[in-house]
Structure to design on (125 residues):
């Protein structure tokens, strides 16, 4: 009897999921409008070009459970003075540990290809 009740509950639950997953009848009747090409995830006008101001700056990759890099995160690669990088996202780490890089204190990082770079070691171009 218990098995019969469990199977009936599973069937009812699966049926309710199926009903909620199906689109409404009026959505099926409406003709499909041509869709515009999909836009990139980050608008290109928000991206900035950065110029490295430090001699040799580490691009660090945050750990698996971290959102932002830390001063002791592993180094992915190095960039040098004059290199140009493109970044579309910046982390604002209010309350996170500060770092000292390129002669200044800071908490913010730019996300670039390969990892994150301290905001104190670059300038917007």
């Amino acid at each position: 009897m218990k098995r019969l009740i469990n199977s009936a509950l599973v069937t009812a639950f699966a049926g309710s999921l199926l009903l909620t997953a199906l689109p409404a009848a009026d959505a099926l009747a409406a003709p499909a409008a041509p869709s515009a090409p999909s836009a990139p995830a980050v608008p290109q006008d928000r991206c900035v070009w950065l110029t490295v101001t430090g001699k040799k700056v580490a691009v660090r990759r945050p750990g698996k459970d971290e959102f932002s890099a830390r001063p002791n995160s592993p180094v992915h690669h190095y960039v040098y003075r004059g290199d140009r990088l493109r970044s579309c996202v910046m982390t604002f780490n209010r309350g996170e540990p500060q770092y000292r890089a390129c002669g200044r204190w800071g908490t913010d990082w730019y996300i670039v290809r390969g990892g994150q770079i301290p905001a104190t070691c670059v300038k917007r171009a």
